[in-house]
Amino acid sequence: MVHVTYTSGPICALTLHEHESYINTLLQLNTPCKVNHLSLSLSLSLSIRIHLYIYIYISLSLIVVVLERMPRRNGVCLWSLYSCAVFCLVAIVNAEDPYRFFTWNVTFGDIYPMGIRQQGILINGQFPGPEIYSVTNDNLIINVFNNLPEPFLISWNGVQQRRNSYEDGVYGTTCPIPPGQNFTYKLQVKDQIGSFYYFPSLGFQKAAGGFGAIKILSRPRIPVPFPDPADDYSILIGDWYTTNHTRLEKIMDLGWRLPFPDGVLINGRGDGGVTYNVEQGKTYRLRISNVGLQNSLNFRIEGHSMTLVEVEGTHTVQTPLSSLDVHVGQSYSVLVTADQPSQDYYIAVSSRFTSQNINTTGIFRYANSVKAVSGTPPPPPNTDITWSLNQARSIRTNLTASGPRPNPQGSYHYGQINISRTIKINGAASIIDRKQRYSVNGVSFVAADTPLKLADYFNISGVFKVGSIPDEPTDKAPYLDTSVMGADFRDFVEIVFENRENIIQSWHLDGYNFFVVGMDGGRWSDKSRNNYNLVDAVSRCTIQVYPKSWTAIYLGLDNVGMWNIRNEFWVRRYLGEQFYLRVYSPVMSPRDEYPLPQNALLCGRAVGKSS
Protein backbone atom coordinates (compact mmCIF):
# COMPACT_ATOMS: atom_id res chain seq x y z
CA MET A 1 0.00 0.00 0.00
CA VAL A 2 1.38 3.39 -1.03
CA HIS A 3 0.06 6.50 0.71
CA VAL A 4 0.23 9.78 -1.14
CA THR A 5 -0.69 13.12 0.41
CA TYR A 6 -2.25 15.63 -1.99
CA THR A 7 -1.84 19.35 -1.55
CA SER A 8 -5.62 19.73 -1.47
CA GLY A 9 -7.74 16.94 -0.05
CA PRO A 10 -7.29 13.90 2.17
CA ILE A 11 -4.74 11.13 1.97
CA CYS A 12 -5.65 8.70 -0.80
CA ALA A 13 -4.77 5.02 -0.64
CA LEU A 14 -3.37 3.59 -3.85
CA THR A 15 -2.90 -0.10 -4.49
CA LEU A 16 -0.34 -1.26 -7.05
CA HIS A 17 -1.48 -4.22 -9.15
CA GLU A 18 0.76 -6.02 -11.58
CA HIS A 19 -0.99 -6.09 -14.95
CA GLU A 20 -1.27 -9.49 -16.59
CA SER A 21 0.44 -8.12 -19.67
CA TYR A 22 3.51 -7.37 -17.50
CA ILE A 23 4.01 -4.01 -19.22
CA ASN A 24 1.57 -1.77 -17.37
CA THR A 25 1.19 -0.90 -13.72
CA LEU A 26 -2.37 -0.10 -12.87
CA LEU A 27 -3.26 2.19 -10.03
CA GLN A 28 -6.75 1.82 -8.66
CA LEU A 29 -8.25 4.42 -6.35
CA ASN A 30 -9.77 2.73 -3.31
CA THR A 31 -11.14 5.87 -1.71
CA PRO A 32 -12.43 9.01 -3.41
CA CYS A 33 -10.30 12.15 -3.15
CA LYS A 34 -12.24 15.33 -2.52
CA VAL A 35 -10.38 17.22 -5.19
CA ASN A 36 -12.15 18.90 -8.08
CA HIS A 37 -9.46 18.28 -10.67
CA LEU A 38 -6.37 16.22 -9.98
CA SER A 39 -3.46 16.26 -12.39
CA LEU A 40 -0.39 15.72 -10.25
CA SER A 41 1.60 13.37 -12.43
CA LEU A 42 4.98 14.83 -11.60
CA SER A 43 4.64 15.00 -7.82
CA LEU A 44 2.74 11.72 -7.66
CA SER A 45 5.21 9.98 -9.93
CA LEU A 46 8.03 11.26 -7.73
CA SER A 47 6.25 10.07 -4.59
CA ILE A 48 5.67 6.63 -6.06
CA ARG A 49 9.30 6.42 -7.10
CA ILE A 50 10.47 7.35 -3.60
CA HIS A 51 8.50 4.44 -2.16
CA LEU A 52 9.75 2.13 -4.86
CA TYR A 53 13.30 3.18 -4.13
CA ILE A 54 12.69 2.20 -0.49
CA TYR A 55 11.54 -1.23 -1.65
CA ILE A 56 14.63 -1.46 -3.89
CA TYR A 57 16.87 -0.59 -0.93
CA ILE A 58 15.33 -3.38 1.15
CA SER A 59 15.62 -5.83 -1.74
CA LEU A 60 19.25 -4.92 -2.39
CA SER A 61 20.06 -5.33 1.31
CA LEU A 62 18.83 -8.91 1.10
CA ILE A 63 20.92 -9.41 -2.04
CA VAL A 64 23.98 -8.16 -0.13
CA VAL A 65 23.43 -10.75 2.60
CA VAL A 66 23.25 -13.51 0.01
CA LEU A 67 26.28 -12.32 -1.97
CA GLU A 68 28.44 -12.06 1.16
CA ARG A 69 28.02 -15.79 1.65
CA MET A 70 28.82 -16.66 -1.97
CA PRO A 71 32.39 -17.61 -2.98
CA ARG A 72 34.58 -15.95 -5.59
CA ARG A 73 35.02 -18.07 -8.72
CA ASN A 74 37.84 -17.76 -11.28
CA GLY A 75 38.83 -14.44 -9.78
CA VAL A 76 35.53 -12.90 -10.76
CA CYS A 77 33.55 -11.43 -7.91
CA LEU A 78 29.87 -12.24 -7.93
CA TRP A 79 29.38 -8.77 -6.53
CA SER A 80 29.19 -7.64 -10.14
CA LEU A 81 25.70 -9.13 -10.08
CA TYR A 82 24.83 -6.58 -7.42
CA SER A 83 25.71 -3.68 -9.70
CA CYS A 84 23.64 -5.23 -12.46
CA ALA A 85 20.66 -5.61 -10.12
CA VAL A 86 20.93 -1.98 -9.02
CA PHE A 87 21.01 -0.77 -12.61
CA CYS A 88 18.04 -2.89 -13.73
CA LEU A 89 15.81 -2.03 -10.77
CA VAL A 90 16.46 1.72 -11.01
CA ALA A 91 15.87 1.61 -14.77
CA ILE A 92 12.51 -0.06 -14.23
CA VAL A 93 11.43 2.67 -11.81
CA ASN A 94 12.48 5.51 -14.12
CA ALA A 95 10.95 3.94 -17.24
CA GLU A 96 7.35 4.12 -16.06
CA ASP A 97 5.10 6.56 -17.91
CA PRO A 98 3.57 9.29 -15.70
CA TYR A 99 0.14 8.98 -14.08
CA ARG A 100 -2.50 11.68 -13.84
CA PHE A 101 -5.39 11.24 -11.43
CA PHE A 102 -8.88 12.70 -11.70
CA THR A 103 -11.92 12.31 -9.45
CA TRP A 104 -15.19 13.29 -11.09
CA ASN A 105 -18.57 13.70 -9.45
CA VAL A 106 -21.38 13.55 -12.03
CA THR A 107 -24.65 15.26 -11.09
CA PHE A 108 -27.65 17.00 -12.54
CA GLY A 109 -27.80 20.75 -12.00
CA ASP A 110 -29.54 23.85 -13.27
CA ILE A 111 -27.85 25.51 -16.23
CA TYR A 112 -28.83 28.57 -18.27
CA PRO A 113 -26.79 28.36 -21.50
CA MET A 114 -29.44 30.18 -23.55
CA GLY A 115 -31.05 32.17 -20.75
CA ILE A 116 -33.59 29.43 -20.00
CA ARG A 117 -33.27 27.20 -16.94
CA GLN A 118 -32.81 23.57 -17.85
CA GLN A 119 -31.36 20.42 -16.36
CA GLY A 120 -27.75 19.77 -17.33
CA ILE A 121 -25.14 17.11 -16.60
CA LEU A 122 -22.34 18.60 -14.50
CA ILE A 123 -18.92 17.16 -13.71
CA ASN A 124 -17.60 18.50 -10.43
CA GLY A 125 -20.26 21.20 -10.74
CA GLN A 126 -18.94 22.36 -14.10
CA PHE A 127 -20.59 22.70 -17.50
CA PRO A 128 -18.77 21.89 -19.69
CA GLY A 129 -16.74 19.42 -17.64
CA PRO A 130 -13.08 19.82 -16.58
CA GLU A 131 -10.42 19.83 -19.27
CA ILE A 132 -8.09 16.83 -19.32
CA TYR A 133 -4.51 18.00 -19.72
CA SER A 134 -2.02 15.26 -20.60
CA VAL A 135 1.20 14.43 -22.42
CA THR A 136 1.93 11.61 -24.86
CA ASN A 137 1.92 8.17 -23.14
CA ASP A 138 0.45 9.49 -19.88
CA ASN A 139 -1.73 7.11 -17.90
CA LEU A 140 -5.06 8.73 -17.02
CA ILE A 141 -6.83 7.33 -13.97
CA ILE A 142 -10.33 8.83 -13.90
CA ASN A 143 -12.60 7.83 -11.03
CA VAL A 144 -16.18 8.66 -12.05
CA PHE A 145 -18.91 8.78 -9.39
CA ASN A 146 -22.37 8.60 -10.94
CA ASN A 147 -24.79 10.61 -8.82
CA LEU A 148 -27.43 10.76 -11.54
CA PRO A 149 -30.69 8.84 -11.10
CA GLU A 150 -29.85 6.93 -14.33
CA PRO A 151 -26.90 4.90 -15.67
CA PHE A 152 -23.99 6.85 -17.11
CA LEU A 153 -21.02 6.22 -19.41
CA ILE A 154 -18.25 8.47 -20.72
CA SER A 155 -16.48 7.87 -24.01
CA TRP A 156 -13.25 9.48 -25.15
CA ASN A 157 -13.56 10.79 -28.70
CA GLY A 158 -10.22 10.24 -30.46
CA VAL A 159 -8.38 8.47 -27.62
CA GLN A 160 -7.40 5.21 -29.29
CA GLN A 161 -7.40 2.90 -26.25
CA ARG A 162 -4.55 0.87 -27.70
CA ARG A 163 -5.22 -2.87 -27.10
CA ASN A 164 -7.88 -1.89 -24.58
CA SER A 165 -11.36 -1.40 -26.04
CA TYR A 166 -12.79 -2.36 -22.62
CA GLU A 167 -12.18 1.25 -21.55
CA ASP A 168 -13.76 2.85 -24.62
CA GLY A 169 -16.87 3.87 -22.70
CA VAL A 170 -19.58 2.97 -25.23
CA TYR A 171 -22.25 0.41 -24.44
CA GLY A 172 -20.82 -2.09 -26.90
CA THR A 173 -17.65 -2.36 -24.81
CA THR A 174 -18.32 -1.12 -21.29
CA CYS A 175 -21.10 -1.62 -18.74
CA PRO A 176 -22.79 1.62 -17.65
CA ILE A 177 -22.05 2.99 -14.19
CA PRO A 178 -25.22 2.38 -12.11
CA PRO A 179 -26.72 5.28 -10.16
CA GLY A 180 -24.90 5.85 -6.88
CA GLN A 181 -21.84 3.85 -7.90
CA ASN A 182 -18.42 4.64 -9.34
CA PHE A 183 -16.03 3.25 -11.91
CA THR A 184 -12.36 4.03 -12.47
CA TYR A 185 -11.32 4.37 -16.10
CA LYS A 186 -7.67 3.49 -16.73
CA LEU A 187 -6.62 5.03 -20.03
CA GLN A 188 -3.25 5.55 -21.67
CA VAL A 189 -2.83 8.13 -24.41
CA LYS A 190 -0.28 5.85 -26.04
CA ASP A 191 1.62 7.40 -28.94
CA GLN A 192 -0.90 10.22 -29.31
CA ILE A 193 -0.87 13.99 -29.45
CA GLY A 194 -3.59 16.46 -30.32
CA SER A 195 -7.04 17.82 -29.60
CA PHE A 196 -10.00 15.64 -28.62
CA TYR A 197 -12.97 15.58 -26.25
CA TYR A 198 -15.02 13.30 -24.01
CA PHE A 199 -18.81 12.99 -23.86
CA PRO A 200 -21.66 10.93 -22.34
CA SER A 201 -22.34 8.03 -24.70
CA LEU A 202 -25.58 6.55 -23.35
CA GLY A 203 -28.89 7.42 -24.95
CA PHE A 204 -29.24 11.14 -25.62
CA GLN A 205 -27.34 12.31 -22.52
CA LYS A 206 -24.96 14.23 -24.75
CA ALA A 207 -27.80 16.74 -25.23
CA ALA A 208 -27.56 17.56 -21.50
CA GLY A 209 -23.83 18.28 -21.30
CA GLY A 210 -21.24 16.13 -19.54
CA PHE A 211 -18.67 16.81 -22.25
CA GLY A 212 -15.23 18.39 -21.99
CA ALA A 213 -11.92 18.92 -23.79
CA ILE A 214 -8.95 16.55 -23.95
CA LYS A 215 -5.56 18.09 -24.64
CA ILE A 216 -2.57 15.80 -25.37
CA LEU A 217 0.74 17.64 -25.61
CA SER A 218 3.93 16.35 -27.20
CA ARG A 219 6.70 15.11 -24.92
CA PRO A 220 9.33 17.80 -24.26
CA ARG A 221 11.98 16.07 -26.37
CA ILE A 222 9.73 15.81 -29.44
CA PRO A 223 9.86 18.94 -31.64
CA VAL A 224 6.59 20.68 -32.54
CA PRO A 225 6.47 22.41 -35.96
CA PHE A 226 5.57 25.84 -34.60
CA PRO A 227 6.73 28.04 -31.69
CA ASP A 228 5.08 27.70 -28.30
CA PRO A 229 1.92 29.85 -28.26
CA ALA A 230 1.31 32.50 -25.66
CA ASP A 231 -1.70 30.49 -24.50
CA ASP A 232 -3.61 27.37 -25.49
CA TYR A 233 -7.42 27.58 -25.44
CA SER A 234 -9.88 24.70 -25.82
CA ILE A 235 -13.08 25.85 -27.57
CA LEU A 236 -16.07 23.51 -27.56
CA ILE A 237 -18.76 24.53 -30.06
CA GLY A 238 -22.02 22.77 -30.77
CA ASP A 239 -25.70 23.07 -31.48
CA TRP A 240 -28.03 22.86 -28.48
CA TYR A 241 -31.59 22.06 -27.41
CA THR A 242 -33.28 23.78 -24.50
CA THR A 243 -35.50 20.71 -24.11
CA ASN A 244 -34.59 18.12 -21.48
CA HIS A 245 -32.70 15.14 -22.94
CA THR A 246 -35.20 12.63 -21.53
CA ARG A 247 -38.01 14.43 -23.37
CA LEU A 248 -36.00 14.27 -26.59
CA GLU A 249 -35.48 10.54 -26.10
CA LYS A 250 -39.23 9.99 -25.68
CA ILE A 251 -39.93 11.84 -28.93
CA MET A 252 -37.49 9.61 -30.82
CA ASP A 253 -38.71 6.43 -29.13
CA LEU A 254 -42.20 7.21 -30.42
CA GLY A 255 -40.78 7.25 -33.93
CA TRP A 256 -41.10 11.00 -34.45
CA ARG A 257 -38.52 13.43 -35.79
CA LEU A 258 -36.87 15.96 -33.49
CA PRO A 259 -37.27 19.68 -34.14
CA PHE A 260 -34.29 21.72 -35.24
CA PRO A 261 -31.85 22.65 -32.41
CA ASP A 262 -32.53 25.93 -30.59
CA GLY A 263 -29.10 27.52 -30.87
CA VAL A 264 -25.32 27.22 -30.75
CA LEU A 265 -23.04 27.27 -27.69
CA ILE A 266 -19.38 28.17 -27.22
CA ASN A 267 -17.98 26.43 -24.14
CA GLY A 268 -21.47 26.03 -22.73
CA ARG A 269 -22.46 29.69 -23.15
CA GLY A 270 -24.89 31.40 -25.47
CA ASP A 271 -24.54 34.54 -27.55
CA GLY A 272 -21.78 36.84 -26.29
CA GLY A 273 -21.18 34.69 -23.22
CA VAL A 274 -17.52 33.81 -23.78
CA THR A 275 -14.48 36.12 -23.97
CA TYR A 276 -10.89 35.21 -24.84
CA ASN A 277 -8.28 37.71 -23.69
CA VAL A 278 -5.20 38.27 -25.86
CA GLU A 279 -2.20 40.59 -25.99
CA GLN A 280 -1.02 42.60 -28.96
CA GLY A 281 1.54 40.79 -31.11
CA LYS A 282 1.22 37.39 -29.43
CA THR A 283 0.09 34.12 -31.06
CA TYR A 284 -2.49 31.79 -29.52
CA ARG A 285 -3.48 28.20 -30.13
CA LEU A 286 -7.21 27.50 -30.36
CA ARG A 287 -8.32 23.85 -30.15
CA ILE A 288 -11.80 23.79 -31.68
CA SER A 289 -14.08 20.75 -31.27
CA ASN A 290 -17.65 20.39 -32.51
CA VAL A 291 -19.32 18.56 -29.60
CA GLY A 292 -22.81 19.19 -30.93
CA LEU A 293 -25.58 16.86 -32.02
CA GLN A 294 -25.98 17.28 -35.76
CA ASN A 295 -24.91 20.54 -37.39
CA SER A 296 -21.69 21.39 -39.19
CA LEU A 297 -20.49 24.76 -37.90
CA ASN A 298 -18.31 27.46 -39.38
CA PHE A 299 -15.80 29.19 -37.04
CA ARG A 300 -14.22 32.58 -37.76
CA ILE A 301 -12.73 35.59 -35.98
CA GLU A 302 -13.48 39.10 -37.20
CA GLY A 303 -10.50 40.72 -38.90
CA HIS A 304 -8.11 37.83 -38.20
CA SER A 305 -6.60 35.03 -40.23
CA MET A 306 -6.09 31.57 -38.72
CA THR A 307 -3.38 29.02 -39.51
CA LEU A 308 -4.35 25.35 -39.39
CA VAL A 309 -1.67 23.30 -37.58
CA GLU A 310 -3.28 20.09 -36.27
CA VAL A 311 -6.25 17.82 -36.94
CA GLU A 312 -7.15 15.10 -34.42
CA GLY A 313 -3.58 14.21 -33.58
CA THR A 314 -1.88 14.96 -36.91
CA HIS A 315 0.31 18.00 -37.59
CA THR A 316 -0.90 19.46 -40.87
CA VAL A 317 0.59 21.56 -43.61
CA GLN A 318 0.17 25.06 -42.17
CA THR A 319 -2.67 26.51 -44.23
CA PRO A 320 -4.02 30.06 -43.77
CA LEU A 321 -7.79 30.22 -43.24
CA SER A 322 -10.34 33.01 -43.12
CA SER A 323 -12.85 30.60 -41.58
CA LEU A 324 -13.07 26.89 -40.82
CA ASP A 325 -15.86 24.36 -41.28
CA VAL A 326 -15.92 22.03 -38.26
CA HIS A 327 -18.27 19.11 -38.82
CA VAL A 328 -19.93 17.39 -35.89
CA GLY A 329 -17.49 15.25 -33.91
CA GLN A 330 -14.37 16.85 -35.41
CA SER A 331 -11.45 18.65 -33.73
CA TYR A 332 -8.91 21.14 -35.15
CA SER A 333 -6.08 23.33 -33.88
CA VAL A 334 -5.40 26.77 -35.34
CA LEU A 335 -2.93 29.52 -34.52
CA VAL A 336 -4.17 33.12 -34.35
CA THR A 337 -1.89 36.14 -34.00
CA ALA A 338 -3.27 39.24 -32.28
CA ASP A 339 -2.02 41.60 -34.99
CA GLN A 340 -4.91 44.07 -35.21
CA PRO A 341 -5.59 47.33 -33.33
CA SER A 342 -6.40 46.89 -29.63
CA GLN A 343 -10.16 46.47 -29.41
CA ASP A 344 -12.79 43.74 -29.21
CA TYR A 345 -13.56 41.48 -32.18
CA TYR A 346 -16.35 39.03 -32.83
CA ILE A 347 -15.86 35.28 -32.73
CA ALA A 348 -18.66 34.00 -34.95
CA VAL A 349 -20.01 30.43 -35.14
CA SER A 350 -22.92 29.49 -37.40
CA SER A 351 -24.58 26.40 -38.84
CA ARG A 352 -23.84 25.26 -42.38
CA PHE A 353 -25.91 23.83 -45.23
CA THR A 354 -29.23 23.82 -43.35
CA SER A 355 -32.66 25.24 -44.14
CA GLN A 356 -32.66 27.03 -40.79
CA ASN A 357 -29.65 29.01 -39.59
CA ILE A 358 -28.51 29.15 -35.99
CA ASN A 359 -25.50 31.12 -34.79
CA THR A 360 -23.73 32.59 -31.82
CA THR A 361 -20.83 34.88 -30.98
CA GLY A 362 -17.99 35.24 -28.52
CA ILE A 363 -15.46 38.02 -27.94
CA PHE A 364 -11.77 38.12 -28.93
CA ARG A 365 -10.59 40.89 -26.59
CA TYR A 366 -7.23 42.64 -26.72
CA ALA A 367 -5.58 43.89 -23.56
CA ASN A 368 -6.21 47.63 -23.20
CA SER A 369 -9.10 47.35 -25.64
CA VAL A 370 -10.43 50.77 -26.59
CA LYS A 371 -13.55 49.66 -28.47
CA ALA A 372 -16.31 47.13 -27.91
CA VAL A 373 -17.71 44.98 -30.71
CA SER A 374 -20.31 46.68 -32.85
CA GLY A 375 -22.34 46.05 -35.94
CA THR A 376 -22.95 42.60 -37.32
CA PRO A 377 -20.56 39.63 -36.93
CA PRO A 378 -18.58 38.55 -40.01
CA PRO A 379 -20.74 36.45 -42.35
CA PRO A 380 -20.01 32.78 -43.09
CA PRO A 381 -18.77 31.61 -46.51
CA ASN A 382 -21.35 30.99 -49.19
CA THR A 383 -23.50 27.89 -48.88
CA ASP A 384 -22.01 26.25 -51.94
CA ILE A 385 -20.68 22.82 -50.96
CA THR A 386 -17.72 23.35 -53.30
CA TRP A 387 -16.06 25.87 -50.96
CA SER A 388 -16.19 23.45 -48.03
CA LEU A 389 -15.13 20.47 -50.16
CA ASN A 390 -12.08 22.35 -51.43
CA GLN A 391 -11.13 23.35 -47.90
CA ALA A 392 -11.36 19.72 -46.78
CA ARG A 393 -9.20 18.56 -49.67
CA SER A 394 -6.55 21.17 -48.82
CA ILE A 395 -5.96 19.65 -45.37
CA ARG A 396 -2.81 17.54 -45.66
CA THR A 397 -0.29 15.93 -43.35
CA ASN A 398 2.95 17.75 -42.61
CA LEU A 399 5.28 14.93 -43.68
CA THR A 400 8.42 16.42 -42.12
CA ALA A 401 6.95 17.13 -38.68
CA SER A 402 7.37 14.68 -35.84
CA GLY A 403 4.22 13.14 -34.41
CA PRO A 404 4.09 11.51 -30.97
CA ARG A 405 7.41 9.83 -31.78
CA PRO A 406 10.56 11.50 -33.11
CA ASN A 407 10.23 9.92 -36.57
CA PRO A 408 8.56 12.15 -39.21
CA GLN A 409 4.86 11.66 -39.85
CA GLY A 410 5.66 10.89 -43.50
CA SER A 411 7.76 7.84 -42.65
CA TYR A 412 4.68 5.59 -42.85
CA HIS A 413 4.02 5.04 -46.56
CA TYR A 414 0.36 4.10 -46.48
CA GLY A 415 -0.01 4.51 -50.25
CA GLN A 416 2.36 1.61 -50.92
CA ILE A 417 0.43 -1.00 -48.91
CA ASN A 418 -1.80 -3.49 -50.71
CA ILE A 419 -5.49 -3.26 -49.86
CA SER A 420 -6.86 -6.55 -48.54
CA ARG A 421 -10.54 -5.58 -48.53
CA THR A 422 -12.95 -2.84 -49.62
CA ILE A 423 -15.92 -1.98 -47.40
CA LYS A 424 -18.69 0.35 -48.57
CA ILE A 425 -20.75 2.12 -45.93
CA ASN A 426 -24.12 3.65 -46.77
CA GLY A 427 -26.06 5.35 -43.97
CA ALA A 428 -29.68 6.02 -44.76
CA ALA A 429 -33.03 6.97 -43.27
CA SER A 430 -35.40 4.02 -42.89
CA ILE A 431 -38.91 3.29 -41.71
CA ILE A 432 -39.06 0.07 -39.70
CA ASP A 433 -42.24 -1.07 -37.94
CA ARG A 434 -43.78 2.29 -38.91
CA LYS A 435 -41.17 4.21 -36.90
CA GLN A 436 -38.35 6.47 -37.96
CA ARG A 437 -35.05 4.57 -37.92
CA TYR A 438 -31.63 4.91 -39.54
CA SER A 439 -29.49 2.11 -40.88
CA VAL A 440 -26.05 1.17 -42.19
CA ASN A 441 -26.08 -1.08 -45.26
CA GLY A 442 -29.70 -1.88 -44.50
CA VAL A 443 -29.16 -2.83 -40.83
CA SER A 444 -30.46 -0.59 -38.04
CA PHE A 445 -28.45 -1.22 -34.89
CA VAL A 446 -30.16 -2.25 -31.65
CA ALA A 447 -28.18 -2.65 -28.44
CA ALA A 448 -27.93 -6.12 -26.91
CA ASP A 449 -28.58 -6.88 -23.25
CA THR A 450 -24.84 -7.34 -22.69
CA PRO A 451 -21.88 -5.27 -23.92
CA LEU A 452 -20.53 -6.98 -27.02
CA LYS A 453 -16.94 -6.95 -25.83
CA LEU A 454 -17.87 -8.73 -22.60
CA ALA A 455 -19.94 -11.29 -24.50
CA ASP A 456 -16.94 -11.87 -26.76
CA TYR A 457 -14.54 -12.21 -23.83
CA PHE A 458 -16.73 -14.65 -21.90
CA ASN A 459 -17.89 -16.53 -25.04
CA ILE A 460 -21.55 -15.82 -24.28
CA SER A 461 -23.61 -17.06 -27.19
CA GLY A 462 -26.68 -15.34 -28.61
CA VAL A 463 -25.62 -11.75 -27.88
CA PHE A 464 -24.31 -10.92 -31.36
CA LYS A 465 -23.21 -12.57 -34.56
CA VAL A 466 -20.08 -11.60 -36.48
CA GLY A 467 -21.06 -10.84 -40.05
CA SER A 468 -24.53 -9.55 -39.17
CA ILE A 469 -23.90 -6.52 -41.39
CA PRO A 470 -22.76 -6.83 -45.03
CA ASP A 471 -19.65 -5.20 -46.49
CA GLU A 472 -21.74 -3.09 -48.86
CA PRO A 473 -25.34 -1.90 -49.31
CA THR A 474 -27.94 -4.40 -50.44
CA ASP A 475 -31.41 -4.19 -51.96
CA LYS A 476 -33.03 -5.89 -48.97
CA ALA A 477 -35.59 -4.09 -46.84
CA PRO A 478 -33.99 -2.48 -43.76
CA TYR A 479 -34.19 -4.51 -40.56
CA LEU A 480 -33.14 -4.38 -36.90
CA ASP A 481 -30.11 -6.29 -35.60
CA THR A 482 -27.08 -6.01 -33.31
CA SER A 483 -24.75 -5.42 -36.23
CA VAL A 484 -21.11 -6.52 -35.90
CA MET A 485 -18.65 -6.69 -38.80
CA GLY A 486 -15.63 -8.95 -38.47
CA ALA A 487 -12.10 -7.99 -39.49
CA ASP A 488 -8.65 -9.53 -39.10
CA PHE A 489 -5.85 -8.02 -37.08
CA ARG A 490 -3.19 -6.34 -39.26
CA ASP A 491 -5.35 -6.21 -42.39
CA PHE A 492 -5.17 -2.99 -44.41
CA VAL A 493 -8.61 -2.01 -45.68
CA GLU A 494 -10.31 0.61 -47.80
CA ILE A 495 -13.61 2.01 -46.53
CA VAL A 496 -15.83 4.07 -48.80
CA PHE A 497 -18.56 6.13 -47.11
CA GLU A 498 -21.38 6.81 -49.57
CA ASN A 499 -23.94 9.52 -48.88
CA ARG A 500 -26.97 9.38 -51.16
CA GLU A 501 -28.91 11.93 -49.11
CA ASN A 502 -29.17 15.73 -49.18
CA ILE A 503 -27.50 16.34 -45.81
CA ILE A 504 -23.90 16.21 -44.60
CA GLN A 505 -22.98 13.06 -42.72
CA SER A 506 -20.08 12.82 -40.29
CA TRP A 507 -18.55 9.41 -39.45
CA HIS A 508 -16.33 8.47 -36.53
CA LEU A 509 -14.32 5.31 -35.84
CA ASP A 510 -13.27 4.52 -32.28
CA GLY A 511 -9.83 3.03 -31.67
CA TYR A 512 -8.15 4.37 -34.80
CA ASN A 513 -6.98 7.16 -37.01
CA PHE A 514 -7.35 6.64 -40.75
CA PHE A 515 -6.03 8.28 -43.93
CA VAL A 516 -8.58 10.35 -45.86
CA VAL A 517 -7.44 9.46 -49.38
CA GLY A 518 -10.32 10.92 -51.40
CA MET A 519 -13.69 12.67 -51.47
CA ASP A 520 -15.87 13.87 -54.30
CA GLY A 521 -19.42 14.32 -55.53
CA GLY A 522 -21.46 11.62 -57.24
CA ARG A 523 -21.09 7.87 -56.89
CA TRP A 524 -17.82 6.14 -56.08
CA SER A 525 -16.36 3.65 -58.59
CA ASP A 526 -13.08 1.80 -59.05
CA LYS A 527 -11.91 4.66 -61.27
CA SER A 528 -12.23 7.01 -58.30
CA ARG A 529 -8.99 5.52 -56.97
CA ASN A 530 -7.10 7.26 -59.77
CA ASN A 531 -7.53 10.54 -57.91
CA TYR A 532 -6.63 9.28 -54.42
CA ASN A 533 -4.02 11.14 -52.40
CA LEU A 534 -1.50 8.39 -51.63
CA VAL A 535 1.25 10.66 -50.31
CA ASP A 536 0.17 13.17 -47.66
CA ALA A 537 -3.51 12.51 -46.85
CA VAL A 538 -4.48 13.70 -43.39
CA SER A 539 -4.78 11.06 -40.67
CA ARG A 540 -7.79 11.59 -38.40
CA CYS A 541 -10.70 9.78 -36.69
CA THR A 542 -13.81 11.69 -37.86
CA ILE A 543 -14.65 12.56 -41.46
CA GLN A 544 -17.50 14.32 -43.23
CA VAL A 545 -19.32 13.00 -46.29
CA TYR A 546 -20.96 15.74 -48.34
CA PRO A 547 -24.49 15.40 -49.79
CA LYS A 548 -24.73 13.10 -52.80
CA SER A 549 -21.02 12.41 -52.39
CA TRP A 550 -18.47 9.89 -51.15
CA THR A 551 -15.38 9.85 -48.94
CA ALA A 552 -12.73 7.11 -49.01
CA ILE A 553 -10.29 6.19 -46.23
CA TYR A 554 -7.40 3.75 -45.78
CA LEU A 555 -7.23 1.98 -42.44
CA GLY A 556 -4.54 -0.26 -40.95
CA LEU A 557 -6.21 -2.64 -38.48
CA ASP A 558 -3.45 -2.65 -35.85
CA ASN A 559 -5.65 -2.35 -32.74
CA VAL A 560 -7.47 -5.48 -31.59
CA GLY A 561 -10.86 -4.92 -29.98
CA MET A 562 -14.52 -4.09 -30.49
CA TRP A 563 -14.79 -0.63 -32.06
CA ASN A 564 -17.81 1.57 -32.66
CA ILE A 565 -18.34 3.08 -36.13
CA ARG A 566 -21.08 5.70 -35.95
CA ASN A 567 -22.68 8.66 -37.59
CA GLU A 568 -21.99 11.64 -35.33
CA PHE A 569 -25.41 13.05 -36.24
CA TRP A 570 -26.66 11.99 -32.80
CA VAL A 571 -30.32 11.38 -33.65
CA ARG A 572 -29.25 9.02 -36.40
CA ARG A 573 -26.80 7.23 -34.14
CA TYR A 574 -29.47 6.89 -31.43
CA LEU A 575 -31.89 5.39 -33.95
CA GLY A 576 -29.53 2.82 -35.41
CA GLU A 577 -26.92 4.41 -37.73
CA GLN A 578 -23.95 2.70 -36.16
CA PHE A 579 -22.30 -0.72 -35.90
CA TYR A 580 -19.26 -2.39 -34.34
CA LEU A 581 -16.07 -3.54 -36.02
CA ARG A 582 -14.60 -6.60 -34.29
CA VAL A 583 -10.86 -6.65 -35.00
CA TYR A 584 -9.79 -10.15 -34.07
CA SER A 585 -6.46 -11.85 -33.40
CA PRO A 586 -6.49 -15.65 -32.86
CA VAL A 587 -3.28 -15.47 -30.84
CA MET A 588 -5.07 -14.24 -27.68
CA SER A 589 -1.88 -12.65 -26.38
CA PRO A 590 -1.48 -9.56 -24.18
CA ARG A 591 0.91 -8.31 -26.86
CA ASP A 592 -2.17 -7.90 -29.07
CA GLU A 593 -4.86 -7.12 -26.50
CA TYR A 594 -4.92 -6.53 -22.77
CA PRO A 595 -7.05 -8.84 -20.63
CA LEU A 596 -10.30 -7.77 -19.01
CA PRO A 597 -9.56 -5.03 -16.43
CA GLN A 598 -9.69 -6.25 -12.85
CA ASN A 599 -12.22 -3.57 -11.94
CA ALA A 600 -14.49 -4.09 -14.97
CA LEU A 601 -18.19 -3.73 -14.27
CA LEU A 602 -20.25 -6.77 -15.28
CA CYS A 603 -23.82 -6.47 -16.47
CA GLY A 604 -26.40 -8.34 -18.51
CA ARG A 605 -25.45 -11.96 -19.12
CA ALA A 606 -21.89 -11.28 -17.97
CA VAL A 607 -23.01 -10.95 -14.31
CA GLY A 608 -21.35 -13.62 -12.21
CA LYS A 609 -18.73 -14.46 -14.83
CA SER A 610 -15.11 -14.72 -13.79
CA SER A 611 -12.00 -14.14 -15.87
Automatic annotation (TrEMBL):
In terms of CDD domains, this protein maps to: CuRO_1_AAO_like_1 (cd13846), CuRO_3_AAO_like_1 (cd13894)
Entry keyword set? Glycoprotein, Membrane, Oxidoreductase, Transmembrane, Transmembrane helix
Q: Which InterPro entries match?
A: Cu-oxidase-like_N (IPR011707), Cu-oxidase_2nd (IPR001117), Cu-oxidase_C (IPR011706), Cu-oxidase_fam (IPR045087), Cupredoxin (IPR008972), CuRO_1_AAO-like (IPR034273), CuRO_3_AO-like (IPR034275)
Report the GO molecular function annotations.
copper ion binding; hydroquinone:oxygen oxidoreductase activity; oxidoreductase activity
Q: What is its EC number?
A: 1.10.3.2
Its domain of life?
Answer: Eukaryota
Question: Where does the Plastocyanin-like domain start and stop, copy by copy?
Answer: 107-219, 232-368, 449-585
Q: What is the similarity comment for this entry?
A: Belongs to the multicopper oxidase family.
| Transmembrane region(s) | 50-67, 76-95
What taxonomic lineage is listed for the species of origin?
Eukaryota, Viridiplantae, Streptophyta, Embryophyta, Tracheophyta
What is this protein's name? Laccase
Q: Could you tell me which Pfam families the record lists for this protein? A: Cu-oxidase, Cu-oxidase_2, Cu-oxidase_3
